[in-house]
Amino acid sequence: MIWNKTKECMSRDEMSALQSARLVKTVDYVYHNVPFYREKMQQLGLLPGDIKGIEDIVKLPFTTKDDLRDNYPFGLFAVPDSQIVRIHASSGTTGKPTVVGYTRKDLDIWSECVARCLTMAGVTNKDIVQVAYGYGLFTGGLGAHSGAEKIGAMVVPMSTGNSKKLTTLMVDFGATAICCTPSYLLHISEILKAEGLLDKIKIKSAICGAEPWTEEMRIDLEKSLNIHAHDIYGLSEVMGPGVACDCIYHKGLHVCEDHFYPEIINSATMQPQKQGELGELVFTTITKEGLPLLRYRTKDLTTIDYSVCDCGRTSARLGRFKGRVDDMLIIRGVNVFPSQVEAALAEVKELSHHYMMIVDRVNNLDTLEIQVEVNPEYLTDEIRGIEKLTAKIGHVINQALGLNAKIKIVEPMTLKRSEGKAVHVIDNRKLY
Ligand code: DLL
Hints:
Blueprint: H1 12-33, H2 35-43, H3 65-70, E1 86-90, E2 98-102, H4 104-120, E3 128-131, H5 139-151, E4 154-157, H6 163-173, E5 177-180, H7 182-194, E6 205-209, H8 215-225, E7 228-235, E8 240-246, E9 253-255, E10 260-265, E11 279-285, E12 296-302, E13 304-305, E14 317-318, E15 329-331, E16 334-336, H9 338-346, E17 351-362, E18 365-374, H10 381-385, H11 387-401, E19 406-410, E20 425-427
Parallel strand pairs: 3-4, 3-5, 5-6, 6-7, 17-20, 18-19
Antiparallel strand pairs: 1-2, 7-8, 8-9, 9-14, 10-11, 11-12, 13-14, 15-16, 17-18
Helix pairs in contact: 1-2, 4-5, 7-8, 9-11
The chain binds 5'-O-[hydroxy(phenylacetyl)phosphoryl]adenosine.
5'-O-[hydroxy(phenylacetyl)phosphoryl]adenosine (DLL) binds at residues 90, 133, 138-140, 209-212, 231-236, 240-241, 298, 300, 321, 324.
């Protein structure tokens, strides 16, 4: 079923009943098939029969990335290797990769979830979809690919690595949709502009995710490319792209709640947050066979809203992601999220969305330098004088973070471009 019309949506009560039935089944399944969960439940004195419905989910243990790493590579799989038909892995920055195994049914459900997301973004079987997420162990490429194929669209498996070819084929094939990270789309838009191809493309929607981005950047991309830009979320451990996506109203990301049960918790107390309160997103997979997960702590910070969307969909919606719990930097005792810097810089119209934060320690004192590119449209000799602009940026940063940063305005195309997940922080303190 691809949710496209109001009359196909479940009521909240119907959804809860479905989630309850699926949770009960999942708990029984993991208890009998994953020794790790059986032991965890036994430690808590829990038997599968103690979980009678979705309201009992709070009794269940959490799962973390470390649990996956400790059971590297296949230790948490619930089926024999012979039933696993695909492996993906996410490398992260430290330690061993987390490895995810999919059964045939898992792959079918995954492609359906991505197909729903693409449908929310207006993609149909008449579209030509360029998939410019990386193919390989990363879930972006193959995940988006199978969802687009499921819809019956014509899929162009570009992957990353050759932006010039991508823009050429975009024009030659008349691609109408693109799936890639938002930072890569920004880079693609610069290439199209530089090569005078903007009025030759037929792209009408972009489905971007895999990294945090601001609403301002989404709107700027819509304007500069004359498209609709959608935010798609997912993570390898839970599935890949397609866990949630925003519809044409852009009022939060609709969760595929019949497969992934979301909770928002306070990471310090581990207690549930209220609707609308920022907290850590936790997912329980309620239909997965290969790697089912109970209460997986994503470390992603967001909010949840259960009201009916303007589009008529009844599914819970996640707010725009504010970053990750582990993205937080402590600079001179102040907690700083890169997303705060990004949002503050977006207020300054003379700037592009390209920035880099460089954190260092000089004479035992933390320093923060923010390098930011000027928007080419504002690149005049006057701007090159820049003192006024530097002061303005320093002010918005101080307002947002409560600390002073050294601002360095750089010319367009100076900072390194990304084809995958963008890197916005260099923390030299870690080198000491
Ligand atoms: O990034 C899966 C994906 C591919 C999602 C393509 C969307 C599009 P991982 O490499 O395991 O999987 O990274 C997952 O990326 O926990 C978030 O921190 C971040 N992330 C993913 N989507 C978004 C988004 C893929 N829309 C991690 N907004 C997650 C903000 C996102 N952060």
